[in-house]
Amino acid sequence: MILIFLGPPGAGKGTQAKIIEERFAHRQISTGDLLRAHRAGKTALGREAQSYMDEGKLVPDGLIIRMMEEEIKTSSNVILDGFPRTVAQAVALDQLANSKGWSLPQAILFDVDESVLMERLVGRLTHAASGRTYHSTFNPPVVAGLDDVTGDALIQRPDDKEETIRTRLAVYKDQTEPLIEYYDNPASGRLTSVDALGPIDDVTRRIERVISVREIPQRP
Ligand code: AP5
Questions:
Q1: Are 63 and 70 in contact (CB under 8 A)?
Q2: 101 CA to middle of ligand 1, Å?
Q3: Is any atom of ligand 1 closer than 6 Å to the C-beta of 4?
Q4: Residue 141 Cβ < 6 Å to ligand 1
Q5: pLDDT by residue (tens digit) across 177-203?
Q6: Fewer CB atoms < 10 Å away: N or C end of the chain?
């Protein structure tokens, strides 16, 4: 089953996707991490995406859809973190699932009060190579400034500046929030809302409950 993690920047999608992928037979695909890897590798896509990302705007649909069709083509056992982000992307994803004979994607909406997002994002520390994230207060690494797994230095993402965060939040409202209505169709039951406030472990338990209702198998 294709599982979509939907929610505003800072809602905890990446944090939870990394935890859930370890427990369930589903691979996390983060569009943000993929794009950052393209940038680091100075690929044509990375160069094209750079200015949009730095300004907190969305990378054009055509580029994203091509990149994701390539990523998803072999297996539907994925957690999509940061995709789709526009109705055009959601339609393309449904078309891909239909063409493969997969069931239509299911979305989990991270329900979070907007007032916590700025604090979460300005305090975020990221391990650039893996996309693992920490928070200086809410989820600090064992050794300050260093990744728990590799010991590499953590960075602050360039788009985690207050002004860019404000743009990203506005872009979410304008272009991504309409997806709630797209998936929240009582007939198809494709959207479940999860309370994304409170300790990270509590949020994980709420997501696991949703996933077990949907009968996604655990890793052996
Ligand atoms: P992307 O990397 O996807 O950024 P985002 O959606 O803005 O999401 P974030 O990574 O900021 O938030 P998150 O929800 O994953 O939060 P996290 O778990 O890290 O995209 C970056 C850019 O790439 C976009 O602006 C765009 O330009 C481009 N892009 C990507 N996808 C695209 C697409 N589909 N179409 C077009 N363009 C695209 O948590 C945040 C912080 O909070 C962390 O520090 C964490 O430790 C902390 N935290 C997490 N949970 C909790 C909790 N329960 N309590 C307290 N703190 C918590």
A1: no
A2: 30
A3: no
A4: no
A5: 999 999 998 777 899 999 999 999 999
A6: C
Tens of pLDDT, residues 12-58: 999 999 999 988 888 999 999 999 999 999 999 999 999 999 999 99
pTM of the model: 0.94
> Rounded to an integer, what distance in angstroms lies between the CA atom of residue 64 and that of residue 139?
30
Q: Which two tokens stand for residue 216?
A: 């996604």
| Bridge partners, residue 5, by sequence | 81, 108
Within a 10 A sphere around the Cβ of 22, how many other Cβ atoms?
10
CB 30 within 8 A of CB 41: no
Residue nearest to atom 1 of ligand 1 (CA): 32
Ligand 1 pocket residue status of 36, Cβ below 6 Å: no
> Which residues form the catalytic set?
13, 85, 124, 157, 168
**198: amino acid identity, one letter:** G
What six digits make up the tokens of 212?
Answer: 């077990």
